[in-house]
Request: fold
Amino acid sequence: MIETIRQGLKEEGIVVSISQLCRWFEVPRRTFYYQSVKAPPKVQPRFAEPIKAMIEDNPSFGYRTVAHLLGFNKNTVQRVFQLRGWQVRRRPVGFRPRIEARRSSASQPNERWATDLCRVWAGRDGWATLALVVGCFSRELNRPAFRGGHLV
Reply:
C-alpha cells in the first residue's frame, strides 16, 4: 500500500521517502520492509492419500473419526483437512420437526398426544418425576394413569 502511494505521488512529480510515508500513516518501517521467509505449509502424501480415500467413501466423517479409524494424530488430520479444504459441510439449517415449535395437528380427540417429563422437588420426599401428557387436539393436560408403578 505504501509503495503504491509512493508511486502515485512520484507520477505527479512529488517525491516522498518511505520513512516519511510510514510516519504519515503510522506504520512501522519494518512492516514495510518485512519479507516472510516462512515456506507455505506442505501436506505429506502419506497422510493425505489415506485421508482422501476415507472421506470419499464416507463424506460425513469428520477429522476425529478419520483420525481414529486411520490411527493418525487428530491434529495432523485436522491440519490436512484445513489445508486441502476438506472440512465436512455443516448440516443444512431447515425444517426440523422435533426442534421447531409448531402446533401438532390432530383432527379429533384421543388421536395424538405430546409428552414431557421433568423432575420437581417434593420437599421431604425429595425429587419426584412429573409426567405430563397434552392432547394435541384440545391442548388439555391429561394426567397419566399408573397401575402397579407402570404407566398405562
The chain is about 35% helix and 15% strand. The beta strands are 113-121, 127-135, 141-142, 146-147, 150-151. Residues 45-84 form one domain.
